[in-house]
Design goal:
mainly alpha, two-stranded parallel sheet, 17 helices, 434 residues, 3 domains
């Protein structure tokens, strides 16, 4: 046996345990194991098992996937898939468009998905309002007119909203209903229809009252923020009084404002900007309640204050409102077609620049904030403000963007929002001056 099976019994000993003999053992054991097996050549590619059909060549050009994933989703109403695609496309840029401070604010992403996308599949009012809202923003940004195909969704939204309010069911005061009215109010503002926007905001106040006030919406900070921003936008840019502030059941604590509180409002915003700038540099996020609380406590109070013309107090009030509009309100990428506040702002700046009744550094800050927040880049007022800014920069002896930024940061400043835009202004001013 030992002589006939040396690899099993005597692999150590007379055969030795060196590498050569171990290789011999393995080769002997594997004899016949791979017999008859075919191994594919490395690097070969799959080849079709049939020749192309000469009579039907188009069959070989069928794409691997037909249609889009959207075609497998049941939406709440009949809508062209291209319009649904625009909603999804817009959602990718919505954060930067509506919330420029979003990188520093810890919004609830799960809640956002539930509020923004899920209702598209079960709420026809929300879906039609979203279609019209999205298309309006695209048309405004590109200068196109809103066509009948898009206007149909506005008419459908109003009809569905009217039916829902008449029905008086649980959906009447639902989050999706409130969101839909917010979108309708925003688009009315965007199209310059102040009266319609105000009616929608009064409707929002009524819906919130029916829910029991903002206190019942504490778990949905972003929804409260959207409602408040519509009210503030309407009040600031159309010159009408705030609607929600008149409602005792809003849950927003706003004591009567006195003139001496202006400094406190400035300090509140100063502390807020410090927190945001620190969050920007450290990549941290702050609670969304901080943004909502600062916006409501500062902007509502600023809208009620009145000071002497050309006074430092009035300069602070106007500057704070312009600054807050860029930080909190959803109009950073488009300018609303209302001239009430922009006209008052530019008239004030022209007057104080001529009178030199306030420090030149503050005039520089007011001009910079105003051009960025209030005036379209190619507009006449923007050019006029730039001309005033150029004169102030030259008279102040500022010779570099670093010097200008240092002066601006002595007042209120948000690096995330204003740095790049202000540096572009500096370049435009210097280019013309040279």
């Amino acid at each position: 046996m030992a002589n006939s099976m040396p690899f099993i019994i005597s692999s150590v000993g007379e055969y030795g345990d060196d590498a050569k003999n171990r290789q011999l053992v393995r080769r002997h054991v594997m004899l016949g194991k791979n017999k008859g097996k075919k191994r594919p050549k490395r690097g070969c590619r799959f080849q079709p098992d049939h020749e192309p059909d000469a009579d039907h060549p188009h069959l070989d050009k069928v794409p691997p996937k037909l249609g889009t994933d959207l075609s497998f989703i049941d939406f709440a109403d009949t809508v062209e898939l291209s319009l649904i695609g625009d909603i999804l496309k817009f959602s990718r840029i919505a954060k930067q468009t509506f919330f420029p401070l979003e990188p520093c604010i810890a919004f609830d992403k799960k809640l956002k998905f539930q509020q923004s996308f899920v209702p598209l599949t079960h709420d026809a009012l929300y879906l039609n309002a979203m279609v019209f809202s999205t298309q309006s923003w695209f048309c405004k940004g590109t200068g196109r007119e809103i066509d009948k195909r898009v206007s149909y969704h506005l008419v459908k939204s109003i009809s569905l909203l009217r039916d829902r309010l008449m029905d008086g069911g649980q959906a009447t005061t639902s989050n999706t209903t409130i969101n839909a009215v917010v979108m309708l109010a925003g688009q009315a503002l965007l199209m310059g229809e102040a009266k319609t926007a105000r009616e929608h905001v009064f409707g929002l106040r009524r819906l919130v009252e029916m829910r029991g006030g903002f206190g019942r919406l504490k778990g949905n900070v972003k929804l409260v923020m959207e409602v408040v921003r519509m009210d503030l936008s309407l009040a600031m840019f159309t010159g009408t009084g705030p609607v929600l502030r008149e409602t005792a059941s809003t849950g927003i604590k706003l004591p009567e404002v006195k003139a001496e509180e202006l400094l406190q409002l400035w300090l509140t915003m100063h502390n807020f900007t410090n927190l945001i700038n620190n969050a920007t540099s450290t990549c941290h996020k702050l609670p969304e309640e901080l943004m909502l609380g600062t916006m409501t406590s500062v902007m509502y109070r600023l809208l009620t204050l009145k000071f002497e013309e050309l006074s430092l107090n009035e300069a602070m009030r106007l500057g704070l409102l312009a600054f807050c509009s860029q930080a909190f309100l959803p109009w950073t990428s488009v300018k609303l077609p209302f001239d009430v506040f922009p006209d008052a702002y530019s008239a004030f700046l022209e007057a104080v620049t001529d009178a030199r009744s306030i420090p030149s550094g503050m005039i520089m800050w007011l001009l910079t904030i105003g051009v960025i927040a209030l005036y379209p880049p190619a507009g006449c007022r923007s050019e006029r403000m730039l001309s005033l800014l150029r004169n102030i920069i030259v008279d102040s002896g500022v010779t570099s963007w670093g010097d200008m930024r240092k002066t601006l940061k002595e007042y209120l400043w948000l690096d995330l929002i204003f740095d790049d835009a202000a540096e572009d202004l500096w370049k435009r001013v210097i280019q013309v001056h040279e």
